[in-house]
Amino acid sequence: MPEGIEGKNPSEPVVVQNPTWRERLGKLWPRRKETPSSISEDETILIDIQDAVDAESRDKIIASTSHSEGIPPDLSQEYESNRRKIEGLYQETAYWHGTGRKQYRNGQAIDLLNSIIDDGGLIPHSDPFDARTGVVSMISLSDRRMYAGGYARMHLPVGERLGYEYMSDRFWGIFLRMTAREVIGSTNLDRIRKIGFHAWSHLREGGNLSTLANLALNLRKNGRKWISRITKEEIKKPITELFTIHSDIPGNYPILIGVKDGTFTPSQTANYISKYETRANTPIPFSNFTHIEVPQDNVQETQNFLNQRGVENIPVVAMELGEIHSSQFSPQQLIVGNPFRK
Question: Can you state the angle between helices 319-326 and 145-153, rounded to 10 degrees?
Answer without folding.
Answer: 140
